[in-house]
Amino acid sequence: MDKMIIRGGARLIGEVQIGGAKNAALPLFMAALLTRDPIRLRNVPALRDINTVEKLLRNMGIRVERKGAEALVQAESLDTIEAPYDLVRTMRASILVLGPLLARAHEAKVSLPGGCAIGTRPINLHLDGFQALGAEIELEHGYIHARAEKLVGTTIDLPLPTVTGTENLMMAAALAEGTTVIENAAREPEVVEVGNFINRMGGRISGLGTKTLVIEGVGALHGTEYTIMPDRVEAATYMVAAGMTRGNLLLRGARAEHLTAVIDKLREAGMEIHQENGGIRCLITGPIKSVDAKTLPYPGFPTDVQAQLMAMMCFANGLSVISETVFENRFMHVSELKRMGADIQVEGHSAIVRGLGELSGAPVMATDLRASASLVLAGLAANGTTEISRIYHLDRGYERMEEKLRAVGADIQRVKA
Ligand code: UD1
């Protein structure tokens, strides 16, 4: 397994190009199943999760061609309607294939995603929604077997605004008979992206970005071209990197309107952040200030940036309370940050960080995608050398991270095991 070795202390100065959003790209690849026509995607990020979705689709007999940041996906016919355990276990978002398959093939067999490093993370809301649309669902031999001769529009009131759940149901409803209303829908920019994409394919979805989505089913969808939005979590991670290393970065392609809660919080923590020529400029001149934060569904502070903010708070001088309300068990980075000297106490859903103004390099282990990012950030700002193992988590969601960081002055090396 590869390792990352970081010698901390370098100020990051320069420009970072933000790649296409992983969490938008994944559902768009799946949505390509909704038509027999070719779909062309641009700004596709080079990530392990994208390779996984590519394998998943190819395994179904779907044509997928990738060249640099462009992809062509054509689901002219399907050889199988199965998403096997081997692929689903490496990427929970594989569950996003269920909605498109049900709509297109009237049947799907998807391995149950099972345990996950960040809590139990059930998929009950996806399944309840498909049942409301008329699907029959059976759980057998570790697989979800869903069947629907036809899907019929209805009103689905989500108890929680699940992101992939909203996307999955929206994709299925796009080809259902009649109108589906999703209440308490997720409002994340990636959900809006999926809706816009389906509309470009000839779908009829309104209310995107609000809590109520109205999806009028259409008989068929057609091919289209689409440029994937920039990754707001990648951008937020580099913003924090600029703050923690007392650097000055221009994040090319990042969109401030997707990052309001993060920008507000980082400004409160002392950073200067403003829009500039095709990107976002971020720097810090004074000290890092302790701030409290609470993760919430969009437009609140994103859970996917919680670990990175916590790493930053270790470098402030004061108390910071970070509450996680989206996932139950998303503090795995705490024990690793403590190995680097952090003073953090977890009490229920909150972590109380006593900022000491510094951390010291140590051997640490990546446990999940965003936790890994927080360890890279901590290593960049710490005194001495940090060695991060199990960095395959990082490759799931950060494109060429060490290259991008090295280009702005970081001392970071990937060591092949
Ligand atoms: C998506 C993102 C992930 C992000 C998360 C929250 C993708 C591929 N992943 O994950 O990066 O951290 O949104 O912004 O887009 N829940 C249920 N039952 C369900 C579904 C969800 O109880 O059927 C709960 C979850 O356990 C969690 C909460 O709802 O507590 C929100 O999860 P959800 O929005 O579904 O996250 P994902 O879509 O899996």
Report on this model:
The protein is of the alpha/beta class. The chain has 2 domains: 2-19 and 230-416, Enolpyruvate transferase domain (UDP-n-acetylglucosamine1-carboxyvinyl-transferase, Chain); 22-227, Enolpyruvate transferase domain (UDP-n-acetylglucosamine1-carboxyvinyl-transferase, Chain). The chain is built from 14 helices and 24 strands. The protein has helices at residues 22-31, 48-59, 85-88, 98-105, 124-132, 163-174, 189-200, 232-244, 260-268, 306-313, 332-339, 369-381, 392-397, 401-407; strands at 3-7, 13-17, 38-42, 63-67, 70-74, 82-83, 107-111, 136-140, 143-147, 155-157, 179-183, 204-206, 212-216, 224-227, 248-252, 271-276, 279-284, 293-294, 319-323, 343-347, 350-354, 363-365, 385-389, 411-415. The strands form 6 sheets. Strands 22-23-1-24 form a 4-stranded mixed beta sheet. The chain has a 4-stranded mixed beta sheet with strand order 2-15-17-16. Strand 18, helix 10 and strand 19 form a beta-alpha-beta unit. The model has no long low-confidence stretch (mean pLDDT 96). The structure holds uridine-diphosphate-N-acetylglucosamine. The site of uridine-diphosphate-N-acetylglucosamine (UD1) has 20 residues, from helix 1, helix 5 and helix 6. Uridine-diphosphate-N-acetylglucosamine (UD1) is lined by residues 23, 26, 93, 119, 121-126, 160, 162-165, 190, 303-304, 326-327.
